[in-house]
Write a structure and sequence with these properties.
- The protein is α/β, with parallel strands linked by helices.
- It has an eight-stranded parallel β-sheet.
- It is globular, with a radius of gyration of 17 Å.
Length: 254
């Protein structure tokens, strides 16, 4: 019924309890999850986790925050993307919050991912933080709209959301939307069309209310759906159905 469009099942906080995590998902009717790659050193772990369940999938990519790691190339990413469980490219993008100085290497890495996504015909999973202008500019320059994708864990403005949608992207909402101080995000969710939204946990991080301070897990994506339903004045079932349809449309899962 529900799909967690962005989680890190290979991280030790989840993987060390993977059977309990899977049982909790089933109990919560979370029947599909996308396990996101953050570097090439652990991409095989991501693929291995995805292979544990028919409805778990994987991406390949290198997070924009990661320094002093194997730098991705178009050739390496496209080769990894041939794995039958890989349905997306990323997470990639730009982050000007955590890193300072000359970040041209981040922009170069982002371009590599977009080019690899276009060659592989895989949607992009984009992370952007305090870098919306450059993120959207590079998306346009590199023709990211050819494959589309998702702006994950979205916390930017409504204008940025509309600009991303215009570039053939979906907007993914995390547990942050349940936080009391997320007033702007709540208003953004109210204004966005349901047929362009996905839901995610970004687990093991960002556990939604009432689980704040705990290790997040895919089963908690239900709380994200419930908050969106409350904000939009519709049923949780409608949110679950439409966001699942959106996910399967974007990632060509039928």
């Amino acid at each position: 019924m529900y799909i967690d469009s962005h989680c890190h099942l290979n991280f030790s906080e989840l993987y060390n309890n993977i059977h309990q995590i899977q049982s909790a998902m089933l109990a919560a009717q979370v029947n599909c999850a996308l396990c996101i790659s953050v570097n090439l050193e652990t991409v095989n772990d991501v693929l291995a986790v995805a292979e544990l369940n028919d409805n778990w999938y994987a991406t390949v990519g290198v997070h924009p925050d990661y320094e002093d790691i194997e730098e991705p190339t178009v050739e390496r990413l496209t080769e990894l993307a041939k794995h039958p469980k890989v349905i997306g490219m990323g997470e990639t993008g730009l982050d000007y919050f955590r890193l300072q100085g000359d970040l041209e290497w981040q922009r170069d890495r982002f371009r590599v991912h977009i080019n690899a996504a276009r060659q592989s015909n895989k949607p992009l999973i984009i992370h952007t933080r305090q870098a919306a202008s450059d993120t959207l500019r590079i998306m346009k320059e590199e023709k990211a709209r050819d494959v589309g994708g998702v702006m994950h864990c979205f916390t930017e403005s409504l204008d940025v959301a509309h600009a991303a949608i215009d570039e053939n992207f979906y907007i993914s909402i995390s547990g942050i939307v349940t936080f009391k101080n997320a007033k702007e995000l709540k208003e953004t969710v109210k204004a966005l069309p349901l047929d362009r939204l996905l839901i995610e946990t970004d687990s093991p991080y960002l556990a939604p209310t009432p689980y704040r301070g705990q290790t997040n897990q895919p089963a908690y994506v239900v709380k994200v759906a419930e908050e969106i339903a409350l904000l939009k004045g519709i049923s949780t079932e409608e949110v679950a159905h439409q966001t699942s349809t959106n996910f399967r449309t974007l990632f060509k899962l039928g």
